[in-house]
Amino acid sequence: MAIVTVDRTPTTGRAGRAIRLLLDDQAWLQVTADELADLPVREGTDLSEGAQAAVEEALGRTRARLFAVRSLAARAQSVAEIRKKLAAREIPEHVIDETIVLATEYRYLDDVELAGQLARGFRDRGYGRRRAAQGLTARLIARDLAQDALDEAFGSADEAVLAKAALGSRSFGVDDAGRRKAAAFLTRRGFSSSVAWQVVRGRERPS
User: What predicted TM-score, i.e. pTM, was given to this entire model?
Assistant: First the structure.
């Protein structure tokens, strides 16, 4: 058994201002105020070795949960993105799994909704389906979910109409070099080469 002492002397820890927890006056853990509030320990708590291990496990869960909540509050992320971030913090796999289940239950994580938002966002900002697909892949969205989201966002859209809107009033010149630049601009934005050239040449035809 060991007695817990809570040392609130200001110190710099893993998340800024830290609180030191001692066991029989020996350094044990550094925690934040939020983490301490979640732990079953207070000044004078008497802990067995088994109870110490349980507190350390609980701290890992608390840190994973708090990190996930704060990270997701700052930016919507996919399950795979948040899993990767938690793993980088050396959080055990079973704790990561529990954290993801909890975040999903509270709708902090929703890959279907995120995939739809991303796909529609690319379309609305003048990008083609290929560029949108690359964007969803970069966000680690599962392939089947990405495909469904892309089908919903782009399935009924005319690619040439989208490409024409993306090109807008931009002028790259009317010579061959200008045409190539205009077509390259559209292909970089995710439109097929055939559609890009169709739109570029179509702008030169009389109305």
Answer: 0.81
